[in-house]
Design brief:
By secondary structure, this protein is mostly helical. The protein contains 6 helices and 3 strands, in the order H-H-E-H-H-E-E-H-H.
Length: 149
């Protein structure tokens, strides 16, 4: 094949970082969905519940904007998912103490109970899934953080 006829810049699909990331992400997401099934949570619902719990440890009030920024879920999707979580009785929303435009998000008692169980299941799954990395897990996480910057 002539050089100007080549479609791809790699000889093998396994040499494409983007394609590998796509494959690993797809596999990981499929397995996470299975881990969350017993809790009747989608992955986005879990991420926003867990983020609410996480951010509540360091912020007096957690807002939708803060959740969106922390989770990297776009604001419209964040709003839609939070509405669903509220209907499920897992979160509550109230007026923010200092910002009249914002709503503060907090876990309900049942949301708090559920997130504890779901986090344990997801962390257990992650440990098993990423165990193949062995001592390289820390470096892997650093590389992922660099990609997020």
């Amino acid at each position: 094949m002539k050089e100007d006829e080549k479609v791809f810049g790699v000889e093998k699909a396994e040499e494409s970082s983007g394609f590998l990331l796509w494959q690993v992400t797809t596999l990981w997401q499929r397995e996470i969905r299975k881990a969350l099934e017993p809790f009747d949570l989608t992955h986005s619902q879990f991420v926003l519940l867990a983020s609410t719990s996480w951010l509540s440890q360091t912020h007096a009030q957690v807002t939708q904007v803060l959740l969106s920024s922390h989770s990297k879920i776009d604001p419209m999707t964040t709003s839609t998912v939070l509405r669903t979580l509220q209907k499920k009785g897992l979160i509550g929303r109230k007026e923010h103490e200092t910002d009249t435009r914002a709503k503060a998000v907090e876990l309900t008692a049942s949301g708090n109970d559920l997130v504890k169980l779901a986090v344990r299941a997801v962390e257990r799954f992650d440990r098993e899934f990423f165990a193949i990395l062995g001592n390289e897990t820390g470096n892997f996480n650093k590389y992922l953080q660099q990609l997020l910057k």
